[in-house]
Amino acid sequence: MPEQWILIIVLCIVTFLSRLIGVEMIAGRILHPTLRLYFNYVPIAMMVALIVDQIVTTDQGATSISLPIVGGSIAATLMIKVTRSFLPTVIIGVLVGLGIRYLLSG
Q1: Residue burial 79-95, b: 16+ Cβ < 10 Å; e: rest
Q2: For residue 15, what pLDDT band results from cuts at 50, 70 and 90?
Q3: Among 58, 89, 60, which residue's Cα sits nearest to residue 75?
Q4: For residues 95 and 46, what is the distance between their CA atoms, to the nearest angstrom?
Q5: How many Å apart are CA 7 and CA 52, to the nearest integer?
């Protein structure tokens, strides 16, 4: 158990330092418009990769789709379009995902 905490702490430090170095290198510099456009798409690309990784699951070599995650993602997408507010979006997405999971298990 202590090895896991050491690993978590080391990964936190490495992540923090890599982000700090990246910010320090870019701070105060004028970026080329193409590079700035690239950096604008990085957050959405990361979010899509994380969501797709959660939706498409593999179990013993078989690929399947997680219906609770799909339902929660669709509900969150609709909620953010309607409310433009982050907290209600997260709450609705989680509740819909939990509801679908409950319905599928019972």
Answers
A1: bbeeeeeeeebeebbee
A2: very high
A3: 89
A4: 23
A5: 26
